Amino acid sequence: MENIEKNVVLLLNGRDAEEPQDFCDFTLEDQNEAAISKGLAPSAPPDFVPILKQSVCYVVMAVIINEKNEILMMQEAKSSCAGQWYLPAGRVEPNESIMDAFKREVLEETGLTAEASTLLMVESGKITLLNRSLKKLNHFFAIMFSAAGSWYRFVLAGNVTGGSIKLPSQADSESLQAKWVHNLSDLSLRAGDILSIVEHARSFKTQLESQQAFHPSLLPTPRSYTKLFLRLIICARRKTNNRVHILVSEKTAAHLPICEIHPGRSLHAILKKFMTEMFGADLPSHRPHGVLALGHNYQPRPKISDGLCLTLLVSVRLPLEEVGLIDKYSWFQVSLEVAGILLSRMGKFRTVPLNVVRTSESDA
């Protein structure tokens, strides 16, 4: 158990836990077996491998705000949305990191060089181009995603470091032009999904400038993953002394609970199934707060693997004495110092929001 608190501290600081990748408590094979036990057909190959442009899609989006509180916007050149405006965004390409994709997209679409400062939001959903719900969402996804499986959009804040803004005379296949805009309502937008993103970014910037509480700078840690993983830091308090405990798996060596992400289900559905695996059918009331860490690094071809690991902070509302557990899980009491940090990270702007876009009624 001595490494548990050390790994919690690493994750609270946006770094990766020092745990082997084979510490997985709920693999796709386990999930298939659970489905079969209920009379359902397995819905994912147990040897699923996330491969960009084939079975998974990662998208970066840049929200860059200048000292005048203006947003960097680009005008689309694609025939399907030519002339409309959007935030700089695009797919992560094979053999490319999230950070490199951020720099490339900003440069190609705006003419400016930029450095990412922090993740602002993570969004995810299923790629089902024939699904009517997805078509209604907006045509952004239909244009961006050509693979079957799941998609993740990483919204990053950043700062301009050089270059010159793209003028109409420099229009190319990437964009027609770019400009700084204060009121997005003045533009014809490609899709309205960016309105809430920009609002969140401006609120975060205000919070930061006023030196109020906010999450530390969170950028992808450069670790390659062979699968899509969801790691959980689940907190509960003991009624007798109010001390904070976190859930620990003892399936192998003691570690934080981690499961393989099913490519055909939403993260909400996966979280519920994994929580049920740990707590049983009588699932206690709980709250997912947001992302604490993101592990991702590409593996150059031909060693194909484009996995990632999201670490999510979850609090259980009931005292731990009233919460049932499956045998291979137990509670670990953290120090008062770490407990204080965990509790402080449960407030607004203290974690990176994780938004799950519903594209299928079968996710429930």
What can you tell me about this protein's structure?
The radius of gyration is 21 Å and the shape is globular. It has helices at 2-12, 28-37, 98-110, 132-137, 139-144, 194-209, 267-279, 336-344, and strands at residues 56-63, 71-75, 85-86, 89-91, 112-127, 149-163, 177-181, 228-237, 244-249, 258-260, 286-295, 308-316, 329-333, 354-356. Strand 8 and strand 9 (244-249) form a beta hairpin. By secondary structure, it is of the alpha+beta class.
- On the 0-100 scale, what is the average pLDDT? 89
Whole-Å distance between the termini? 35 Å
Shape: globular
* Secondary-structure element series: HHEEEEHEHHEEHEEEHEEEHE
Major sheet details? 6 strands, mixed
Low-confidence stretches: 129-147, 360-364
What's the Cα radius of gyration? 21 Å
Coarse structural class: alpha+beta
- Percent in helix: 10-25%
Total beta strand runs = 14
Strand content: 25-35%
Determine the number of helices (DSSP H or I, runs of at least 4 residues).
Answer: 8
Can you summarize this structure?
The chain has 364 residues and is of the alpha+beta class.
Helix-strand blueprint:
Layout: H1 2-12, H2 28-37, E1 56-63, E2 71-75, E3 85-86, E4 89-91, H3 98-110, E5 112-127, H4 132-137, H5 139-144, E6 149-163, E7 177-181, H6 194-209, E8 228-237, E9 244-249, E10 258-260, H7 267-279, E11 286-295, E12 308-316, E13 329-333, H8 336-344, E14 354-356
Keywords:
364 residues; alpha+beta; 6-stranded mixed beta sheet; 5-stranded mixed beta sheet; 8 helices; 14 strands; disordered C terminus
